[in-house]
Amino acid sequence: MSAAVSAAVSAAGAVGAAAQVVLVAAGAPVLVGLMRQVRARLEGRAGAGFLQPWRDLRKLVRKEAITPDGTGPIFRTAPLVLAGTALVIAAVIPVATTASPLDGAADLFAVAALLALGTVALALAGLDTGTAFGGMGASREMTVMALVEPTILVSIFALSVPVGSTNLGAIVTSTLHEPQRVASPASVLAAVALAVVAIAETGRIPVDNPSTHLELTMIHEAMVLEYAGPDLALVEWASAMRLTILLGLVANLFAPWGIAGASPAMLPVALIAFAAKVAVLGGALAAGEVFMAKLRMFRVPELLAGSFVLALLAVAASYFLVAP
Amino acid sequence: MTPPERTSVEVNAGALPRRAAALLDGGARLALVAAHHDPDALRVVYLFTHPRTDRRTELHVVVDPADPVLPSLAGISFPAGRFEREMHDLYGIVPEGHPLPRRLVRHHHWPRGWYPMRDDAGPPPEFGDPAGPYPFVQVEGPGVYEIPVGPVHAGMIEPGHFRFSVVGESILKLKARLWFVHRGVEKLFQGRLPADAVPLAERVSGDTTVGHTLAFCLAVEEAAGAEVAPGAQRARAILLELERLYNHVTDLGALCNDVGHSILNAQFGRVREQLLRLNAQVTGHRLLRGGVHLGGAVLRTIPDPDVLRSIEADVAEIVALALGHTVVADRFTGTAPLTARAARDLGALGYVARASGLDADARRDHPFTDLRPALTVPTAETGDVLARFQIRAREIGASIAIVNDLTYGTNPGSATYWPPLDPPPAPSGRPASGVGVVEGWRGTIVHRVELAPDGALTRAKIVDPSFFNWPALPLALSGAIVPDFPLVNKSFNLSYAGNDL
What we know:
The complex is a heterodimer of chains A (324) and B (501).
Chain A: H1 3-42, H2 52-61, H3 73-92, H4 108-128, H5 132-163, H6 168-177, H7 185-201, H8 220-223, H9 229-254, H10 267-290, H11 300-320
Helix pairs in contact in A: 1-3, 1-9, 1-10, 2-9, 3-4, 3-9, 4-5, 5-7, 5-11, 7-9, 7-11, 9-10
Chain B: E1 6-11, H1 16-25, E2 29-37, E3 42-49, E4 56-63, E5 69-71, H2 78-91, E6 94-96, E7 144-149, E8 161-167, E9 170-177, H3 185-189, H4 194-202, H5 209-224, H6 230-258, H7 262-283, E10 292-293, E11 296-299, H8 305-324, H9 326-332, H10 340-346, H11 350-355, H12 362-365, H13 385-407, E12 413-415, E13 432-439, E14 444-451, E15 457-463, H14 465-469, H15 472-477, H16 485-492, H17 496-499
Parallel strand pairs in B: 1-4, 5-6
Antiparallel strand pairs in B: 2-3, 3-4, 7-8, 8-9, 10-11, 11-12, 13-14, 14-15
């Protein structure tokens, strides 16, 4: 590859990376709105419209920034860390392009660690408030995270085994070239495991209820109870982005079609394809939630342990059940 | 219906524990304790009701206002101990030998020595600094910590402070601190003519309009010697069941919502709206205000039996969907059981008692109109959230059967026998008094009123079933986990306003 071609590729990749950050940042609240709208319609309510989360964010941003007495820098910086990690992940993972100039950082372990960094920052902020709810939420979130993170790692690792690389871009590209691999036992097991932990990580039913007002049952909401105004807006926005990222990761790892390589012409198609995939997944998740109830808190580890076992089986299958 | 037999006995303070114990041993229930500030003395009335015979027995004890001391009955009756603490806070009557003589109604910022229900109390003085901290029992041990919740909550609910002592997520101890909504309702009754006090009775607890209004009207009618026609009593019974219906349907939906199953809540909400609109057709008010009045009742229209039957089928279907859902059933089953023994000791009432196996229902035990044969009283054994859910679901069917039975041959219109046709009974030296007992949707409501010779109210005492049931909640919750608290709380669904008057 000549230097000129290489430069063109990296320029296209940079445009692609920028475009996917913008898409995730702008689209995440719309996804949340869409999911709420799906739920509302299925429950026979009119719903507030899929732009309502953006209206809520605008309202929150215009409010005065206040922080509780006695909280320190951890409380103030946690929303920034949360949003920052979400944006970095949005830039590096194969959302619309596999040729991101930050592709080197799109490593499986780096992405899982970035997700965990955001969660830990928020949990520390919950502890920093010194309130019972912050501590309770942080303790529950850590319990969930301790069970979720290994599953994310192991299930994506199962996918990386046939590829021979833990780079997410490489996994996606390889799936594009060998689509039959999606139907392999390892891939199916990993898909189920990843879907379960994505639900848990984003605080959806049956693990957590994002729309509850009952303080004592909250996990994620309990940690952020003390946030208000622009800080709360940042937390809400970042949480929506994390949901989008996890759904997008599930979508592109198991159905990468439509994603752009190095070609800039494919980029608009790739963005639309990604939005459609995530919207379908989100809609399906919301529709599934309507018919679900929240698990008893002590049943959550059983669910997550089950998904971890699936992920382990996926790894085993990827070694032993290799197509000849 | 012949009016129930009520006997009043004057006893002196020394004989009170013996007499009370004899009545309780005879199967009576301590339904109400009311203090009165007569011109020359303080007087305490203990009302006992006998569930099998519907006999009501009152013990009157006169107390010296200069040294207001009574022997405590807390040792033989748990509810009596709570009534005594209430009496101490509002009248300054000291229960001697009470095992826990702490404040109940008046929080610590209320001034010492000021008893708002006394006639000479005057306007409330300035609230001062809290007289000492409120002593919560500290649970100690490795890993034990406290979670304080409320009195301001994230949802639109009434104020209550809950202090959980927990290890991990398991509740070791829960202390519910209530009494944030004291409005002095009983004092507002005093001096009003009964007809002017009916709107007040309608607002004692917003979701129990008919229950409290009816208990108040029954009490006033008994005091004034007014007889209410059987047709009007049946109209009142219809209204009482309509109130039970909409509240039960609301709470079944809320229970589903508390386990995160919002579509069941939406469906129960749809049925609830049908019932509220039916209420508006029947009484002109969605919460049934204006339906019951002194001497009678108003029915603008008669509920259509076919509509109610379709609602019954609808509710049965949604209930079956809820209980058929494995996660919902798992969340309900075995959660926060209240044993029959605990329910009996605490004097629990209503569906809370029936879910724990106590067969108590004032519609059968203290009837103001005969509901047989439509009346059935379902009971369950397990006392958990599931039992409370199922009891209420079954009571919906039972209520609809009663309403459909009563509406047969009932005509719309207003019936009233107020003011009474007969002259009031000749003064007998003792003020005219009356008692009303009604099975509201939460449980047995008891009102007792006394009238002056000119017909004005000198005292109205209100007992909401929540007053009896609140102590059952922390008991049922010991050993439960913190995230289940909202669900359990909703399964009891006790009134804050009805408890704290």
